[in-house]
Amino acid sequence: MSRLNNRAGVALGVLPLLGLLTAACWAAAPEGKPTGFWIDPDTPGARKARVLAERGREPEATLLRRIADQPVAVWLTEENPAPRVARIAGQAAADSRVPIFVAYNIPQRDCGHYSAGGAGSDRAYRDWVARLAKGLGNRKAVIVLEPDAVPHTVAGCRDRARNDRLALLNEAVRTLKARPGASVYVDAGNASWIKDTDALARYLTAAGVKRADGFALNVANFQTTAASEEYGDKVSKALGGVHYVIDTSRNGNGPPPDNQTPATGAEAWCNPPDRALGVPPTTRTGHPLVDAYLWIKRPGESDGTCRGGPPAGQWWTDYALKLASAARENLPGREETAAEPAQEETATPGTTASPSPAAAAPSPSGESPSPAATSPSPTPTGSPVTSHAPTSPATESPASP
User: Fold this and answer.
1) Residue 379: is its pLDDT beyond 80?
2) How far apart are CA 71 and CA 313, in angstroms?
3) For residues 155 and 189, what is the distance between their CA atoms, to the nearest angstrom?
4) 337 contacts: CB under 8 Å, gap ≥ 6
């Protein structure tokens, strides 16, 4: 990654490619305000913290603020994401900050598991992505593209035509990257899932990762940062040095045992007990290929109706309190992460994955040919299609009483 201009007063609209995930993201804005990731002031966790404080339950309110006071991704699942994207991107730009979005509407989303749904057709998905891009306009944002879509495809997600899905992702990358402020990371699953990193890299390439800014790991999962970096480095090497980001929202205690709880039948990844918040969002990763640690999954939102949890994506106060409490001793405060002071960044080895016309792309679908489509989809591996569902759709549900 090349050194980026970190001068005070740099215009928000001219930072190149990965500018929003480097020290320039923290550079002083023209008004002198620090820049960084946008924090939603009205999440279910923030509302619940206010309610608890009003009821005199300040210790619990303080714990919830460990979540509410951090920048967390906004999941986009609604039919028309443009209004909400425009509103949030506008608010963030006014505060000299950068929002994080998750595009989560691919057809046959989550292979029909806990977060089943998505656009009804390929054409509908293309229109959806176009509306997202329109809502963003020229403002800056980080976009994590379609959690689980690529690894599910590697694993042979039902009867979904692999070329169609990869072509859709490739087109989505192209549409979003046409917006000058968008940094796009294609989801690549997690360190415990697809073991054949070379096969995963071929699928990511077909999905347009080399036109994007990199890939995302561990979304809504619990793999340790160290394990994610070891895995990410292997995937990156197979891709020729592509950068990546890691979801650290709930990995403070690492993954749960990889089995089912006999009493509940719940899968290990679904609302597992004894987990903890991980390192808060920051671009200070100390790793030349890792652009940022992000909270992509909102801690405290349910993985699904397992272990007594509410439906996927809904706020669960009890679980949030346990996550925050477990991280009590090692979770930095907001001032150390979300609003880090401006500083000069040392140039890091390697460079950003730049758009490449020669990047392998999937064969076009019959519905809407892709100009970049040049090669067929890779042969799928034998990995089982197990649900590693992110299950964090956007939710407007009020804080629980």
Assistant:
1) no
2) 17
3) 11
4) 70, 280, 281, 282
| DSSP string for residues in 159-205 | T--HHHHHHHHHHHHHHHHTSTTEEEEEE---TTS---HHHHHHHHH
The C-alpha atoms of residue 124 and residue 107 are separated, in whole angstroms, by: 9
- In degrees and rounded to multiples of 5, residue 67 shows phi and psi of -95, -50
Q: Which of 214, 207, 220, 221 is nearest to 236 (CA)?
A: 214
Judge contact between 236 and 243, C-beta under 8 A: yes
- Catalytic annotation, residues: 110, 148, 303
pLDDT in tens, 245-270: 999 999 999 999 876 555 666 788 89
Integer-rounded Cα Rg, in Å, for the chain is 20
- The torsion angles phi and psi of 59, rounded to 5 degrees, stand at -55, -40
Q: Are 114 and 387 in contact (CB under 8 A)?
A: yes
Cα torsion angle, 27, 177, 172, 136, sign: positive
Q: Which residue(s) pair with 282 in the sheet?
A: 293
Query: Quick one: 15 exposed, middle or buried, by C-beta within 10 A (0-12, 13-18, 19+)?
Result: buried
Phi then psi dihedrals of residue 87, to 5 deg: -65, -50
pLDDT in tens, 165-211: 899 999 999 999 999 999 999 999 999 999 999 999 999 999 999 99
Q: Let me know: does 140 contact 93? Beta carbons within 8 Å.
A: yes
**Residue 38 in contact with residue 98, Cβ under 8 Å?**
yes
What is the pLDDT, as a whole number, of residue 268? 85
**Alpha carbon separation from 236 to 6, 204, 346 (Å, rounded):** 27, 10, 21
The helix (run of H) or strand (run of E) holding residue 309 is none
Structure tokens at 191: 């360190």
| CB of 119 closer than 8 Å to CB of 194 | no
The tens digit of pLDDT for each residue in 6-26 reads: 322 222 332 333 444 433 333
